[in-house]
Amino acid sequence: MEAVTPMIASPEEAARKAKENTLLSPRFYTTDFAAMDRIDVAPIRAEWDAMMAEYEGDNNHDHFQRTPEFAEEVAQRFSQVPPELRQEFLDFLITSVTSEFSGCILYNEIQKNVTNPDIKALMRFMARDESRHAGFINQSLKDFGLGLDLGGLKRTKAYTYFKPKYIFYATYLSEKIGYARYITIFRQLERHPDKRFHPIFRWFERWCNDEFRHGESFALIMRANPHLLRGGNLLWIRFFLLAVYATMYVRDHTRPMLHHAMGLESTDYDYRVFAITNEISKQVFPITLDIDNPTFRAGMDRLFRIQTRINEAKAQGGLLGKLRQGIWAVAGAATFARLYALPVHRHQLPAQMRVAPAW
Ligand SMILES: [Fe+2]
Ligand SMILES: [Fe+2]
Fold first, then answer.
1. If you measure from the C-alpha of residue 115 to the centroid of ligand 1, how many angstroms do you get, rounded to a whole number?
2. pLDDT 10s digits, 302-342
3. Strand pairing category for 159-161 and 287-289
4. CA 121 – ligand 2 centroid, Å
5. Ligand 1 ion: nearby residues, β-carbon < 5 Å
6. What backbone torsions phi and psi does residue 358 show, to the nearest 5 degrees?
Protein backbone atom coordinates (compact mmCIF):
# COMPACT_ATOMS: atom_id res chain seq x y z
CA MET A 1 0.00 0.00 0.00
CA GLU A 2 1.38 3.39 -1.02
CA ALA A 3 0.85 6.58 0.91
CA VAL A 4 0.18 9.79 -0.95
CA THR A 5 3.06 12.14 -0.17
CA PRO A 6 3.32 15.46 -2.00
CA MET A 7 6.64 16.19 -3.73
CA ILE A 8 9.17 18.41 -1.99
CA ALA A 9 10.94 20.30 -4.75
CA SER A 10 11.11 23.93 -3.63
CA PRO A 11 12.00 25.79 -0.42
CA GLU A 12 8.34 26.94 -0.24
CA GLU A 13 7.17 23.33 -0.28
CA ALA A 14 9.72 22.41 2.41
CA ALA A 15 8.55 25.36 4.55
CA ARG A 16 4.90 24.39 4.07
CA LYS A 17 5.70 20.84 5.15
CA ALA A 18 7.53 22.04 8.27
CA LYS A 19 4.63 24.35 9.18
CA GLU A 20 2.00 21.64 8.83
CA ASN A 21 0.02 20.82 11.97
CA THR A 22 -1.53 17.42 11.43
CA LEU A 23 -1.84 14.58 13.91
CA LEU A 24 1.40 13.19 12.51
CA SER A 25 3.58 16.28 12.07
CA PRO A 26 5.98 17.49 14.76
CA ARG A 27 4.45 20.36 16.73
CA PHE A 28 5.74 23.38 18.63
CA TYR A 29 4.79 23.59 22.30
CA THR A 30 4.34 26.15 24.99
CA THR A 31 3.59 25.53 28.66
CA ASP A 32 2.82 26.97 32.10
CA PHE A 33 6.12 28.66 33.02
CA ALA A 34 5.07 29.49 36.60
CA ALA A 35 4.40 25.79 37.23
CA MET A 36 7.76 24.92 35.65
CA ASP A 37 9.37 27.38 38.02
CA ARG A 38 8.00 25.47 41.03
CA ILE A 39 9.65 22.15 40.06
CA ASP A 40 11.82 20.94 42.91
CA VAL A 41 14.65 18.51 42.23
CA ALA A 42 15.92 18.40 45.83
CA PRO A 43 14.88 14.74 46.37
CA ILE A 44 17.30 13.63 43.63
CA ARG A 45 20.00 16.27 44.11
CA ALA A 46 22.98 13.89 43.78
CA GLU A 47 21.78 12.44 40.45
CA TRP A 48 20.86 15.90 39.24
CA ASP A 49 24.28 17.39 39.96
CA ALA A 50 26.03 14.49 38.25
CA MET A 51 23.88 15.03 35.17
CA MET A 52 24.51 18.78 35.13
CA ALA A 53 28.25 18.08 35.24
CA GLU A 54 27.82 15.99 32.07
CA TYR A 55 26.07 18.88 30.33
CA GLU A 56 28.79 21.21 31.51
CA GLY A 57 31.46 18.88 30.08
CA ASP A 58 29.76 19.24 26.68
CA ASN A 59 31.46 16.27 25.04
CA ASN A 60 29.71 16.99 21.74
CA HIS A 61 30.76 20.62 21.40
CA ASP A 62 32.88 19.84 18.33
CA HIS A 63 30.68 17.13 16.85
CA PHE A 64 28.18 19.02 14.72
CA GLN A 65 30.57 20.33 12.12
CA ARG A 66 30.76 19.11 8.59
CA THR A 67 34.03 17.65 7.39
CA PRO A 68 35.39 18.34 3.88
CA GLU A 69 34.46 14.76 2.93
CA PHE A 70 30.81 15.41 3.76
CA ALA A 71 30.07 17.35 0.58
CA GLU A 72 32.10 14.88 -1.46
CA GLU A 73 30.08 11.97 -0.10
CA VAL A 74 26.82 13.77 -0.86
CA ALA A 75 28.00 14.44 -4.39
CA GLN A 76 29.19 10.88 -4.98
CA ARG A 77 26.72 8.72 -3.10
CA PHE A 78 23.52 10.64 -2.62
CA SER A 79 23.40 11.89 -6.19
CA GLN A 80 23.02 8.23 -7.22
CA VAL A 81 19.84 7.50 -5.23
CA PRO A 82 16.54 7.11 -7.11
CA PRO A 83 14.11 10.09 -6.97
CA GLU A 84 11.54 8.28 -4.75
CA LEU A 85 14.16 7.57 -2.09
CA ARG A 86 15.43 11.11 -2.39
CA GLN A 87 11.89 12.39 -1.64
CA GLU A 88 11.50 10.13 1.38
CA PHE A 89 14.88 11.18 2.70
CA LEU A 90 14.02 14.88 2.28
CA ASP A 91 10.74 14.27 4.09
CA PHE A 92 12.72 12.56 6.86
CA LEU A 93 15.11 15.55 7.08
CA ILE A 94 12.25 18.06 7.26
CA THR A 95 10.36 16.22 10.02
CA SER A 96 13.66 15.72 11.88
CA VAL A 97 14.73 19.36 11.68
CA THR A 98 11.23 20.45 12.75
CA SER A 99 11.19 18.21 15.79
CA GLU A 100 14.77 19.13 16.79
CA PHE A 101 13.85 22.79 16.46
CA SER A 102 10.62 22.22 18.38
CA GLY A 103 12.73 21.05 21.34
CA CYS A 104 15.06 24.02 20.89
CA ILE A 105 12.19 26.55 21.03
CA LEU A 106 10.41 24.95 23.97
CA TYR A 107 13.58 24.61 26.09
CA ASN A 108 14.63 28.12 25.22
CA GLU A 109 11.25 29.62 26.09
CA ILE A 110 11.21 27.83 29.45
CA GLN A 111 14.78 28.98 30.10
CA LYS A 112 13.81 32.59 29.44
CA ASN A 113 10.65 32.49 31.56
CA VAL A 114 11.77 30.77 34.77
CA THR A 115 13.98 31.87 37.65
CA ASN A 116 14.39 28.44 39.24
CA PRO A 117 18.17 27.96 38.77
CA ASP A 118 18.00 24.17 38.28
CA ILE A 119 15.37 24.30 35.56
CA LYS A 120 16.94 27.34 33.94
CA ALA A 121 20.37 25.73 33.68
CA LEU A 122 18.96 22.46 32.35
CA MET A 123 16.85 24.17 29.71
CA ARG A 124 19.77 26.27 28.55
CA PHE A 125 21.92 23.18 28.00
CA MET A 126 19.18 21.30 26.17
CA ALA A 127 18.36 24.28 23.93
CA ARG A 128 22.09 24.50 23.11
CA ASP A 129 22.11 20.85 21.99
CA GLU A 130 18.88 21.02 20.00
CA SER A 131 19.94 24.16 18.20
CA ARG A 132 23.11 22.37 17.06
CA HIS A 133 21.05 19.37 15.93
CA ALA A 134 18.53 21.45 14.00
CA GLY A 135 21.25 23.57 12.40
CA PHE A 136 23.20 20.49 11.35
CA ILE A 137 20.23 18.85 9.62
CA ASN A 138 19.27 22.15 8.02
CA GLN A 139 22.70 22.30 6.37
CA SER A 140 21.88 19.05 4.59
CA LEU A 141 18.59 20.53 3.38
CA LYS A 142 20.51 23.58 2.16
CA ASP A 143 22.61 21.27 -0.02
CA PHE A 144 19.47 20.84 -2.11
CA GLY A 145 18.38 24.47 -1.86
CA LEU A 146 15.67 23.42 0.60
CA GLY A 147 16.99 24.97 3.82
CA LEU A 148 14.28 26.05 6.25
CA ASP A 149 14.06 29.59 7.58
CA LEU A 150 13.99 28.53 11.23
CA GLY A 151 13.35 32.07 12.52
CA GLY A 152 10.36 32.37 10.22
CA LEU A 153 9.10 28.97 11.27
CA LYS A 154 9.35 30.02 14.91
CA ARG A 155 7.19 33.08 14.22
CA THR A 156 4.57 31.48 12.00
CA LYS A 157 4.02 27.86 13.07
CA ALA A 158 1.14 27.26 15.49
CA TYR A 159 1.95 26.42 19.13
CA THR A 160 0.21 23.76 21.17
CA TYR A 161 -0.22 24.40 24.91
CA PHE A 162 0.71 21.47 27.17
CA LYS A 163 0.61 21.43 30.97
CA PRO A 164 4.08 20.71 32.40
CA LYS A 165 3.22 17.11 33.21
CA TYR A 166 2.23 16.43 29.60
CA ILE A 167 5.47 18.07 28.49
CA PHE A 168 7.37 15.69 30.78
CA TYR A 169 5.62 12.54 29.52
CA ALA A 170 5.70 13.52 25.85
CA THR A 171 9.18 15.04 25.77
CA TYR A 172 10.73 12.26 27.84
CA LEU A 173 9.35 9.76 25.34
CA SER A 174 10.31 11.69 22.25
CA GLU A 175 13.89 12.13 23.51
CA LYS A 176 14.23 8.43 24.33
CA ILE A 177 12.56 7.25 21.15
CA GLY A 178 14.78 9.71 19.26
CA TYR A 179 17.80 8.02 20.84
CA ALA A 180 16.46 4.57 19.95
CA ARG A 181 15.77 5.60 16.34
CA TYR A 182 19.18 7.17 15.77
CA ILE A 183 21.16 4.36 17.41
CA THR A 184 19.25 1.63 15.54
CA ILE A 185 20.05 3.30 12.22
CA PHE A 186 23.64 3.91 13.23
CA ARG A 187 24.22 0.27 14.26
CA GLN A 188 22.58 -1.02 11.09
CA LEU A 189 24.80 1.14 8.86
CA GLU A 190 27.84 0.30 10.95
CA ARG A 191 27.23 -3.32 9.94
CA HIS A 192 26.35 -2.41 6.34
CA PRO A 193 28.40 0.65 5.33
CA ASP A 194 27.52 0.02 1.67
CA LYS A 195 23.95 1.05 2.56
CA ARG A 196 24.94 4.41 4.03
CA PHE A 197 23.59 6.52 1.20
CA HIS A 198 24.08 9.86 2.96
CA PRO A 199 26.94 10.97 5.28
CA ILE A 200 24.63 12.44 7.95
CA PHE A 201 24.06 8.95 9.38
CA ARG A 202 27.70 8.80 10.48
CA TRP A 203 26.92 11.57 12.99
CA PHE A 204 24.08 9.67 14.68
CA GLU A 205 26.07 7.84 17.36
CA ARG A 206 27.37 10.80 19.34
CA TRP A 207 24.25 12.75 18.45
CA CYS A 208 21.88 10.24 20.01
CA ASN A 209 23.75 10.44 23.31
CA ASP A 210 22.56 14.04 23.59
CA GLU A 211 18.96 12.87 23.13
CA PHE A 212 19.53 10.12 25.66
CA ARG A 213 20.75 12.64 28.23
CA HIS A 214 17.79 14.96 27.55
CA GLY A 215 15.53 12.00 28.30
CA GLU A 216 17.46 11.32 31.51
CA SER A 217 16.76 14.90 32.62
CA PHE A 218 13.01 14.44 32.33
CA ALA A 219 13.27 11.04 34.00
CA LEU A 220 14.93 12.69 37.01
CA ILE A 221 12.33 15.47 37.15
CA MET A 222 9.55 12.88 37.19
CA ARG A 223 11.30 10.67 39.75
CA ALA A 224 11.67 13.75 41.97
CA ASN A 225 7.88 14.19 41.71
CA PRO A 226 6.59 10.63 42.11
CA HIS A 227 2.92 11.68 42.12
CA LEU A 228 3.37 12.12 38.35
CA LEU A 229 4.02 8.40 38.06
CA ARG A 230 1.06 6.86 39.84
CA GLY A 231 -2.74 6.86 40.25
CA GLY A 232 -4.75 8.57 37.53
CA ASN A 233 -1.56 9.80 35.89
CA LEU A 234 -0.91 6.23 34.71
CA LEU A 235 -3.78 6.76 32.28
CA TRP A 236 -1.94 9.75 30.84
CA ILE A 237 1.33 7.82 30.64
CA ARG A 238 -0.47 5.08 28.77
CA PHE A 239 -1.99 7.62 26.44
CA PHE A 240 1.35 9.25 25.62
CA LEU A 241 3.10 5.90 25.14
CA LEU A 242 0.49 4.87 22.61
CA ALA A 243 0.30 8.26 20.90
CA VAL A 244 4.08 8.50 20.46
CA TYR A 245 4.44 4.89 19.25
CA ALA A 246 1.45 5.09 16.90
CA THR A 247 2.59 8.39 15.38
CA MET A 248 6.03 7.00 14.70
CA TYR A 249 4.63 3.78 13.24
CA VAL A 250 2.28 5.51 10.83
CA ARG A 251 4.84 8.13 9.81
CA ASP A 252 7.61 5.57 9.23
CA HIS A 253 5.34 3.38 7.12
CA THR A 254 4.78 6.26 4.72
CA ARG A 255 8.55 6.07 4.03
CA PRO A 256 9.18 2.38 3.24
CA MET A 257 12.02 3.05 0.81
CA LEU A 258 14.06 5.00 3.31
CA HIS A 259 14.27 1.94 5.57
CA HIS A 260 14.62 -0.47 2.70
CA ALA A 261 17.64 1.43 1.36
CA MET A 262 19.32 0.92 4.74
CA GLY A 263 18.56 -2.80 4.63
CA LEU A 264 15.76 -2.39 7.15
CA GLU A 265 12.05 -2.91 6.88
CA SER A 266 9.74 -0.33 8.48
CA THR A 267 7.79 -2.74 10.73
CA ASP A 268 10.89 -4.52 11.95
CA TYR A 269 12.74 -1.23 12.49
CA ASP A 270 9.84 0.25 14.44
CA TYR A 271 9.50 -2.76 16.74
CA ARG A 272 13.24 -2.71 17.43
CA VAL A 273 12.90 0.95 18.39
CA PHE A 274 9.82 0.23 20.56
CA ALA A 275 11.65 -2.61 22.33
CA ILE A 276 14.57 -0.33 23.21
CA THR A 277 12.24 2.48 24.30
CA ASN A 278 10.16 0.09 26.44
CA GLU A 279 13.32 -1.16 28.12
CA ILE A 280 14.64 2.35 28.86
CA SER A 281 11.31 3.79 29.97
CA LYS A 282 11.08 1.29 32.84
CA GLN A 283 13.37 3.72 34.69
CA VAL A 284 10.42 6.04 35.11
CA PHE A 285 7.11 4.55 33.92
CA PRO A 286 5.64 1.66 35.93
CA ILE A 287 3.81 0.42 32.81
CA THR A 288 4.93 -0.54 29.29
CA LEU A 289 2.81 -1.35 26.24
CA ASP A 290 2.63 -5.02 25.24
CA ILE A 291 4.21 -4.55 21.82
CA ASP A 292 4.29 -8.31 21.15
CA ASN A 293 0.55 -8.76 21.51
CA PRO A 294 -0.74 -9.73 18.02
CA THR A 295 -3.83 -7.53 18.58
CA PHE A 296 -1.53 -4.57 19.25
CA ARG A 297 0.42 -5.25 16.05
CA ALA A 298 -2.75 -5.66 13.98
CA GLY A 299 -4.11 -2.38 15.41
CA MET A 300 -0.94 -0.48 14.48
CA ASP A 301 -1.20 -1.83 10.92
CA ARG A 302 -4.82 -0.76 10.80
CA LEU A 303 -3.89 2.76 11.89
CA PHE A 304 -1.48 2.97 8.98
CA ARG A 305 -4.07 1.67 6.49
CA ILE A 306 -6.59 4.19 7.81
CA GLN A 307 -4.07 7.02 7.46
CA THR A 308 -3.51 5.98 3.84
CA ARG A 309 -7.28 6.23 3.26
CA ILE A 310 -7.35 9.66 4.91
CA ASN A 311 -4.53 10.87 2.64
CA GLU A 312 -6.36 9.54 -0.42
CA ALA A 313 -9.59 11.26 0.63
CA LYS A 314 -7.63 14.50 1.20
CA ALA A 315 -6.12 14.24 -2.27
CA GLN A 316 -9.57 13.57 -3.73
CA GLY A 317 -10.93 16.80 -2.20
CA GLY A 318 -14.48 18.09 -2.57
CA LEU A 319 -17.42 17.26 -0.37
CA LEU A 320 -17.09 13.53 -0.93
CA GLY A 321 -13.41 13.69 -0.04
CA LYS A 322 -14.21 15.58 3.19
CA LEU A 323 -16.91 13.06 4.06
CA ARG A 324 -14.56 10.12 3.48
CA GLN A 325 -11.87 11.85 5.50
CA GLY A 326 -14.33 12.20 8.40
CA ILE A 327 -15.39 8.58 8.28
CA TRP A 328 -11.80 7.33 8.28
CA ALA A 329 -10.89 9.71 11.09
CA VAL A 330 -13.63 8.14 13.23
CA ALA A 331 -12.32 4.67 12.32
CA GLY A 332 -8.84 5.81 13.34
CA ALA A 333 -10.04 7.11 16.70
CA ALA A 334 -11.91 3.82 17.34
CA THR A 335 -8.77 1.80 16.54
CA PHE A 336 -6.71 4.02 18.83
CA ALA A 337 -9.28 3.50 21.61
CA ARG A 338 -9.12 -0.28 21.17
CA LEU A 339 -5.33 -0.20 21.35
CA TYR A 340 -5.55 1.96 24.46
CA ALA A 341 -7.78 -0.61 26.16
CA LEU A 342 -5.30 -3.50 25.66
CA PRO A 343 -3.60 -4.90 28.78
CA VAL A 344 -0.19 -3.41 29.63
CA HIS A 345 2.87 -4.77 31.48
CA ARG A 346 3.36 -3.49 35.01
CA HIS A 347 6.53 -3.35 37.09
CA GLN A 348 8.25 -1.66 40.03
CA LEU A 349 10.45 1.36 39.43
CA PRO A 350 14.16 0.54 39.95
CA ALA A 351 16.08 2.12 42.85
CA GLN A 352 18.78 3.16 40.38
CA MET A 353 17.10 5.96 38.41
CA ARG A 354 19.60 6.49 35.63
CA VAL A 355 20.13 4.21 32.66
CA ALA A 356 23.23 4.07 30.46
CA PRO A 357 22.96 4.45 26.66
CA ALA A 358 24.08 0.87 26.06
CA TRP A 359 22.44 0.01 22.73
FE1 LIG B 1 18.03 16.71 19.32
FE1 LIG C 1 16.80 16.14 22.47
1. 24
2. 999 999 999 999 999 999 999 999 999 999 999 999 999 99
3. unpaired
4. 15
5. 100, 130, 133
6. -105, 20
